[in-house]
Amino acid sequence: MRLVWQPYSRHLALQLCLASALFVSSAFAGAQVYTPLSASVRTVLHHSVSDQGAPKIAFPTQHEADVWLMEMSRRLQDRLPDAEYRMDFLKTVHYEATRAGLIRNWYWA
Questions:
Q1: Residue 92 burial class via C-beta count within 10 angstroms: exposed 0-12, middle 13-18, buried 19 and up
Q2: I need a surface site. Which of 32, 57, 68, 72 has the fewest CB within 10 A?
Q3: What is the pLDDT of residues 29-75, one digit of tens each?
Q4: Distance between CA atoms of 53 and 87, rounded to whole angstroms?
């Protein structure tokens, strides 16, 4: 069975699209009112998105964390000469990669 495109079906489809566009444009979202956030909510939101260091680095032992940090720090020494900034950067990278599921149990295997 072969479908045949009728010339009037294109005209009908155009009419349906125009009718749906008119219907959608007349729809309202309701009586929404702007409500300002309270000071406590603003403070909590500010702290959750502010530029802070990683809360912790997730390794099974502190020794493994130290080994990983020292090795990665050595690799980045030419690109990031400031040691304190480099360690903070590495902790943040490891924390965010673990949180995003990019590294899981590769060092526990």
A1: middle
A2: 32
A3: 677 788 888 899 888 888 777 766 666 777 778 898 899 999 999 99
A4: 10
**Nearest CA-CA partner of 54 in 88, 82, 100:** 88
98 vs 24, residue with greater confidence: 98
In 3D space, the residue among 59, 64, 60 whose CA is nearest the CA of residue 94 turns out to be 59
* CB-CB contact of 87 with 69 (8 Å): yes
pLDDT at 109: 39
Cα–Cα distances (Å) from 18 to 10, 15, 26, 75, 77, in that order, read: 12, 5, 13, 61, 62
In one letter, which amino acid is 73? Answer: S
Q: Which of 71, 74, 75, 69 is nearest to 56 (CA)?
A: 69
